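FAQ
Q: What does a multi-component entry look like?
A: The components come first, one per line:
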Amino acid sequence: MLKKINVMILGSGNIGTDLLVKVLRSPYMNCTRFIGRNFSSTGMRKASTLGVAISDQSINAIINNPDCCELVFDATSASYHKKYAPIFKRMGIKAIDMTPSQVGKMCVPAINTIECLGFDNVNMITCGGQASIPIAYAITQVQQDIEYIEVVSSISSRSAGPGTRANIDEYIENTESGLKEITGCKNVKAIINLNPAVPCIDMQASVCVKVKKPDMKNISKSVSNIAEKMKKYVPGYKVIIDPVYENGRIIVMVKVRGLGDFLPQYAGNLDIINCAAISIAEEYAKLKLEK
Amino acid sequence: MKKIIISDPTLRDGSHAINHQLTKEQVSKYCSAIDKSGVSIVEVGHGNGIGASSIQVGLSKEFDIALLESARENLKEAKLCVHCIPGFATIKKDIKPALDAGVDIVRCACHCTEADITRNHISYVREQGYQAYGVLMMAHMAPIDVLVGEAIKMESYGAEAIIIMDSAGAFLPDKVQQLFTSLCDNLNVHVGYHGHNNLGMGVGNAIIAANSGATILDGSARCFGAGAGNTQLEILVPVLEKLGYTTGIDLYKLLDAVDFISEEFKSSIPTVNSLNIVSGLSGVFSGFTKHVLRISKEYNVDPRDVFFRLGKRGVVAGQEDLIIEEAHNLSQEKIGKAT
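Then the predicted structure of the entire assembly, as tokens:
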């Protein structure tokens, strides 16, 4: 039998519950506990039906069981993660932070997986960041003269739970930090829109880049290369508007259809950040299992 | 006599009409003129509010704070107000500096079904001792019971007034009447109306809102605002007075301020043109108009088709990037048909 590492999921909202479905599919991870605060929440009931051990003890479920896991996915909120991060570190548990807390190393698996494996706390930035930063990065690989990068994400209202909504400033700040750190461009802006249309809209993101002399041929090549890399761990990732130069800016648009694990397929936002988290967690697990 | 508080978004919504190229000098001159008229509240800044300067909706000529400082110096009586949309603006980056620059009122705005994203921002402004209003934008897109529910949420966060924005100029009088009656039955704070003129209802809807219990009305000088423009301030005020409301505004001084806008922005004064009517009919945010025109030209497609497509998709303010997608799709279909 193939060996697996033990992981726990802290936070039983949309992100945590969708992550659980994905972890259960993983050949490298075993979810020893799904942790929330309330047994009657939708996420906790879902976990029960999946036969996963659950706890309503929040962080104490981890503190009181020191050998419970090697890795935790923290899907609580930015302010909670700031409190929990030192606890995970002290306990020697690798943290995959799903919140926009700015604590850990900014991680986009298509770009910096190997580097991130060396950190005990990695931050998955934001859903919009996971969708847009790879495109921005692909453009920076071609253009040296980037003046400004702007990323705009639209997500369906239904896919934004109370945590996301309460963290909207942190969402912007964390997306902008990730964008700066990974592209090296200091002048950036992130915007997010929630759209309540029914049927629900698919998650989309647009990346605008201001440059003096765009090399559109090589930009297109670089963008399509990164999109291929993205598809390996986010199957529903698609460039819907290839790079165009319009009104003094390069614009690229992507759409993300989810796998429909917990929320329906329109919730590509949920899917992309979780697929990214699974991707980095599996690489870490492989490393551990090889030892 | 019932008192109506007049709030003037000329220097905020009007920024849409000039691609957000408002200057400090223009702000100083208008503020000093309008302050003498007795208007209660003056809004200043980028059309989409503080922190919104972007490629997505348009880059400002000046920094938000520079405009606010110019306004502050010239407003002695009127309160200085900013529009603020979470998702564009953040507390740290935008609200705090705006309050430091002397803003009195922050109108925290969101798409009309998303009130909970304004919670932190409204609370923050109140905690700092300033006034916060809640603004529900694009209100034509939600049924009345939903709007009332969202308004109640904002009231519970600490909003001292709820403003309903007909951002696409798509409201018809019956809905305005039913909505404001219901809001006033369910809320304990001021309720206000912000109208646009796309279907010619700017002043009419504002009067109906007042008759149904609204106590704050927005009006712009010469309609200076997005798309077909806003409820026309210098018509709204005397009509209210004729109907027996008090506004506390000196008509001549108001008209003097309005004349500055007429002169200064001669070529950009909004009109109810064909595309603005289509924007109203399709229920798409008035601020899209200039972007739709530019992009439709580039892709050689009919801007009216683009508007109706966007309307069908239920786009909200802030989703200006989708204009390119729809224009692209329309042009691809055109090529498909031709071959």
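Q: Is there any commentary attached?
A: Sometimes. For this entry: The longest helix of chain A spans residues 268-290.
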